Amino acid sequence: MSLVAVPFYQKRHKHFDQSYRNIQTRYLVDEYAAKKRASTQTSSQKSVTQESSSQRESSQTAPGGTTCRLCARKVSSALEEDEQERKHRYQSLVASYGEAKRQRFLSELAQLEEDVHLARTHARDKLDRYALQHVDRYALQHAVDDSLAWERHLREERLNRAPEILVQLRSHTIWERMSVKLCFTVQGFPTPVVQWYKDGSLICQAGEPGKYKIESKYGVHTLEINRVDFDDTATYSAVATNVHGQASTNAAVVVRRFRGDEEPLHSVGLPIRVPLPSVIPHMHFDVQFLEKFGVTFRREGETLALKCTLLVTPDLKRVQPRAEWYRDDVLLKESKWIKMFFGDGQALLSFSHLNKDDEGLYTLRIVSRGGVSDHSAYLFVRDADPLVVGAPGAPMDLQCHDVNRDYVIVTWKPPNTTKESPVIGYFVDRCEVGTDSWVQCNDRPVKICKYPVTGLFEGRSYIFRVRAVNNAGISRPSRVSEAVAALDPLDLKPLHAVHWEGDKEIVIYQEDLEGDVQVPGPPTNVHASEISRTYVVLSWDPPAPRGKEPLMYFIEKSVVGSGSWQRVNAQTAVRSPRYAVFDLTEGKPYVFRVLSANKHGLSDPSEITAPIQAQDTIVVPSAPGRVVASRNTRTSVVVQWDQPKHKEDLLGYYVDCCVAGSTVWEPCNHKPVGYNRFVVHGLTTGEQYIFRVKAVNAVGTSENSQESDVIRVQAALTVPSHPYGITLLNCDGHSMTLGWKVPKFSGGSPILGYYIDKREAHHKNWHEVNASPLQERILTVEGLAEGSLYEFRIAATNLVGIGQPSDPSELFKCEAWTAPEPGPAYDLTFCEVRDTSLVLLWKAPVYSGSSPISGYFVDLKEEDSEEWITVNEATTAHRYLKVCDLHQGKTYIFRVRAVNASGVGKPSDTSEPVLVEARPGTKEISAGVDEKGDIYLSFDCQEMTDASHFTWCKSYEDIAGDERFKVETVGDHSKLYFKNLDKVDLGTYSVSVSDTDGVSSSFVLDEKEMERLVTLSNEIKNPTIPLKSELAYEIFDKGQVRFWLQAEHLSPDASYRFIINDREVSDSETHRIKCDKSTGLIEMVMDQFTIENEGTYTVQIHDGKAKSQSSLVLIGDAFKAVLEEAEFQRQEFLRKQGPHFAEFLHWDVTEDCEVRLVCKVANTKKETVFKWLKDDALYEPEKLPDLEKGVCELFLPKLSKKDHGEYKATLKDERGQDVSVLEIAGKVYEDMILAMSRVCGASASPLKILCTAEEIRLQCFMKYFTEEMKVNWYHKDAKIASGEHMRVGGSEEMAWLKICEPTEKDKGKYTFEIFDGQDTHQRSLDLSGQAFDEAFAEFQQLKAAAFAEKNRGKVLGGLPDVVTIMEGKTLNLTCTVFGNPDPEVMWFKNDRDIELSDHFLVKVEQAKYVSMTIKGVTSEDSGKYSIHVKNKYGGEKIDVTVSVYKHGEKIPDVVLPQQAKPKLLPASASSPTQ
User: What's the whole-number mean pLDDT along residues 328-337?
Assistant: First the structure.
């Protein structure tokens, strides 16, 4: 029996290793033995269970056949305990069996891995010894190369291996509160990292301590779940990952809930059961879609959720219908991009990152036994913003084909380049799973949407992406492909099943049946499976027999006719039976052959292929045929086209659209559609479009098709929907009057009439009332039987046909109405629905009762409320009412009650629920005047259909046929013209558009608006020449007066005239008149303006029918002002003929706080003399002004009152003179002081403390200070007045505050303030705490020092510094001393005390006159004499140099004696004066 395995690893990223191919057989034998042993144990256990059951039955039956209730409860309790003990014993047996089996399997698997490792080592050792045997000399070099390539490949294979699942996870079904272990085996190098997932969510042991236990030993990984509950029912997955790839396996765990009437299911074999398959519930579900997803427009990279809200009946928690999602009729499955949810009354399809691959028609199907309920809508995904402006969109729909050990073919679909330049090629990138490194596979852009990627490593998994290139740049990358493993499907050899022990089979490989084949045979069936211009893919069948050893292939090529062969893959070992050959010369034919090899040697070459030439086998498709666009809905159009003549290998079509009249084309779809019909959504209602189509295949896109005819976006024509709201309006006992509402949808064509059917109660057959369609929506049905019950139905008809009839009305009894109150109003409709208001309209009752109807009441209620609220307190006489103050977003229901003299009549049928919310894009009526001067109201509606028409109303009454109005409608634009607008036309005007979703608006025409429109109309009908400027005057610098005005526009035929005091003046020397018609400027200049020119000036203009006039009145004071200004300008002109002041004398204050007098002069020359005068006296400044610069300056530093006076600046030469005067006094002087205060205040320094012997002084330095400045001092926010204790003053450099004899009360914050006329500048200091203590201590110290200086000993004068005397003379040195107390006086010679004797005499008189006498001076008396005067406060000394010369000697030349300078002495505590 032959079996072929499914290549599952391509879908699940699994890997297959031949080294473990016998595990399946061995495990099958072990499993059969284990089942045999388990069946024996189970049979013994079953016998024990039956015996215990029989004992329980016998014990429950008493001899008498009766048992008391208490005894029965005790027996029942004992039985329950026995049952629990039995369950526990059974669970222990199951757990012990499973653990023993697992341990046995792990030990055997570890031994098997060791055996495999040894076998591989022996195989590598034998390879070197036998590689070159049995080959001839010709093949020796090739064999060596092959051996080296094979060894290199084995080394790579030995070092690098992606994860491989050897033993898969198994599914389990268990009972609640039991434990379960899931285990699997994986190998790979480096050692894979394993992570466990529950329904796609990572399992974390720390999240639920004790719940999960994860172990890994000898490559066997286990997950143990303790005390499972019903919520643990899930799909558990294990993912093994290393740097070379990943592999995964999963299993289902089903937890069953034990019930009292249900016993656990015991297995006769293994104790673990396989879970039941998931099937559709065999019951009927009624599914209703409450909310549906619509056509959606998104951009790449965004997130999205398609959601439907469902009502499923019956609502069963454990049993639900199946929800299936389809894209373009292809069933979707969850992936990293798509997640699905179904439950809680909703079905959700979410996209985490949209790509153009996600564009398409999405269908939700709810499947149950009762059938399929589905809903579909299209999702459009447009390109994300390009990385480079003008770059194309990303390719899409990336697929991998023909996956092998070392290469794979990647295909994709091209992007739509409607708005970009064409694509010139593509770059293909690959990335190994588990890394983030992308490698570009092709150096040059590939032209077609297919590329064979080579250079893959066997056993590793890869993902791919593609980028498009055009002249502007490179696009964003496409969505990555599904991961594929570099393996050959042919590795899954045909399997054979051998019967063993009854119904058991052992599965073995085909190669196990082959003999000992050494060197393989040549490959067969070598052929080209794919040909393009840049490469050729060769395929072949492996040799038969091939042997058990792994095979490699070598490909050789030869140009036809050359006779030489070239090895294609000399450096690469090919393991797969197919290979892509590149670098072929275009236009040359080639032949190929293939050789197979293993470790034993190289085979003979295969048969040579037929000549193959590299060329493209497919071409760009031709353009599609005729394109036809047809109406679909208000926002969509159906586009159909003929298929192209050459449609082979088509990938689909792209559709473009363009607004009629423009040249801007927009893409309609961003992913090729496979059909020749497409619904274009997202169009503007009422707009006109053109469409075109282009075909797409792997080579590129075709030329654009011919453009379709212009089509306006409108809904397609259908039959109308059914009328509704059938109401009985009156009955006289033999007939009934019925009314009804128009269908909600007219089908796109005007409704031509209505057909009414009737039938009596309990009758099945309907009878036609009218044979021809009825135009009105009210009908009196005659010939009825009094007292009988009737029901009616109505159908509408249009151009397409008759629509479905309405639902039967309620049963109406044919009996005469005799009530005095009126009947019900009918036909309640809404218009002008806005966010907080709406207008309700209705029709008057047919039955008015016993008296005329006097008014109406309107009631409302919210949709979910039962309480009716009357809107109007007093009845309204109109058949409309604007209801305001509603809540936005709320839904309301209305009814109307008519009132007559007898009372309130029967309420009308309730209206339809209306949502109070303005429609998006709501437009309002606008009022205007056309070019003819006609007044109109205008309204636009882009949602019109063929059946739509505008209805204009005044006070909500149709004005069709009224002679005062005229209605003009063109397309979706309608105007209501007023033939003769008057006050009778004031009121509310409204317009509604039929066959739309309630499009309507109103406009209130009041007196103010009417006045505006009439004025505008008169301006158009009776045109005036608009003036940019009315008549005005201008005085020139010579005293000339210019009168001028300017019109908006004047034609060459325009005429004008000037009129002064009702007398026209013409152009003359006294009145120079001119006109520039290109600018509309008209002017008149008068050179001499005198007192005789007082009066009215007028200009009249005529230009065709239009005219204009403007006047200027110059009388009285207005004329005097013009005359004075003209005279002044004339005098100024004369003054400026000589030297003059361009700017008269003025002043400012410099940054150095100096007052500067400035004037500017003009028209000067060298002979011009400039002088400064003060009080008519010549003022000589330090620097003479430079008249060439034109600026003269005079600086007044340190301004004070002495600078008061009249300052003049004079200019004079032979041409004339000019004077400018500025008086500094009064207000001018005060302003100068304030300006100086502004400069000084900004430059004032912070307050500083200075201590003296008399006071503590606070001072603020500034550039200049004068007491005339407005300054104030504050202590604790109290203004300080200058007095004995605190004195305010200053100098030129500072302002100060003296605190005389400070005390503790003087502590606090001090503020100095200077005011500059606008701002106040302040400086503050906090004189308290340490600052006050330090200042006060310094003040006390200085005060004490001053007292000591005043009372210390001093020499007041009388002693010279040098004395020259002749020998023998008497020297007397006398001085005056002072001190309090009296000082002590001492004399010294050469710093030694003088001993008193007759030679030296010292005398002190009155304690202040001190003298020292030296009698008979000798040369020995020469030297320095000092007098010391001091008391307890200190003193001083004075040195006197005495020089003695002998008699007859020349008197020495000495400097004239000067007053001797004293030197300070420290204080002394000596006794009083000696």
Answer: 90
Q: Write down the residue that tokens 């036609």 correspond to.
A: 768
- The pLDDT assigned to 367 comes to 87
Instruction: Please state, in angstroms and rounded to a whole number, the distance separating the CA atoms of residues 934 and 496.
Output: 98
Neighbours of 134 (CB within 10 A): 12
0.85 surpassed by pTM: no
Q: Count the helix, strand and coil residues of the chain and give each as a percent rounded to the nearest 5.
A: 15, 40, 45
CA angle 1027, 1028, 1034 (to 5 degrees): 105
H or E stretch covering 394: none
Contact 1467, 1434 (CB under 8 A): yes
- Residues 474, 726: contact at Cβ < 8 Å? no
Structure tokens at 660: 């009629």
Distance (Å, whole) CA 599 – CA 1319: 105
Q: What is the pLDDT of residues 16-68, one digit of tens each?
A: 333 333 444 444 445 545 555 555 554 444 444 444 444 444 434 333 343 34
Omega cis (within 30) before 314: yes
Q: Render pLDDT for 1011-1023 as a digit per residue (tens, 0 to 9).
A: 999 888 888 888 8
Q: Is 577 exposed, middle or buried (0-12, 13-18, 19+ CB in 10 A)?
A: buried
Q: What is the DSSP string of 1159-1226?
A: EEEES--TT-EEEEEETTEE---SS---GGGTEEEEEE-S--GGG-EEEEEEEEETTEEEEEEEEESH
562: burial class by Cβ within 10 Å (0-12, 13-18, 19+)?
Answer: exposed
The CA distance from 1091 to 1113, in Å, is 14
Partners of 574 in the beta sheet? 553
Which pLDDT score is estimated for 509?
56
The pair of three-digit structure tokens given for residue 269, joined into one six-digit string: 């074999």
Query: Looking at residue 37, what is its pLDDT?
Result: 54
Q: Which residues pair with 877 in a beta bridge?
A: none
Contact 1308, 1276 (CB under 8 A): yes
**Peptide bond preceding 605 in cis form (omega within 30 of 0):** no
CB–CB of 404/576 below 8 Å? yes
**Contact criterion met (CB below 8 Å) for 102 and 181:** yes
DSSP string, 1202-1217: GG-EEEEEEEEETTEE
Burial of 1213-1252, coded b for 16+ CB within 10 Å and e otherwise, reads eeeeebebebebeeeebeebbbbbbbbbbeebeebebebe
Q: Which of 277-286, 370-379, 969-978, 1136-1145 has the lowest mean pLDDT?
A: 277-286
- pLDDT tens-digit series, residues 97-120: 666 666 666 666 667 666 666 766
Q: 473: buried, middle or exposed (CB in 10 Å: 19+, 13-18, 0-12)?
A: middle
How does pLDDT run across 610-669, given as a tens digit for each residue?
Answer: 898 888 777 888 899 999 999 888 889 999 999 998 777 889 999 999 999 999 999 999
Q: What is the 3-state secondary structure (H, E, C) of 593-610?
A: EEEEEECCEECCCCCCCC
pLDDT for the residue numbered 498: 56
Tokens of 344: 């809680």
Give the torsion through C-alpha atoms of 67, 70, 74, 76, to 10 deg: 60
How many other C-beta atoms are found inside a 10 Å radius of the C-beta of residue 1301? 12
Least confident stretch, 192-196, 266-270, 687-691, 1002-1006: 266-270
User: What sign does the dihedral 326-330-332-333 (CA atoms) show?
Assistant: positive
Residue pLDDT, tens place only, 657-695: 999 999 999 999 999 998 899 999 999 888 899 999 999
Q: For residues 394 and 299, give the distance between their C-alpha atoms in angstroms, rounded to a whole number.
A: 12
Pairing assessment for the beta strands 1320-1327 and 1308-1315 based on DSSP bridges = antiparallel
Residues 509, 21: Cα–Cα separation, whole Å: 8
The beta-strand segments (E) located in 190-244 are 193-198, 201-202, 212-217, 220-225, 234-242
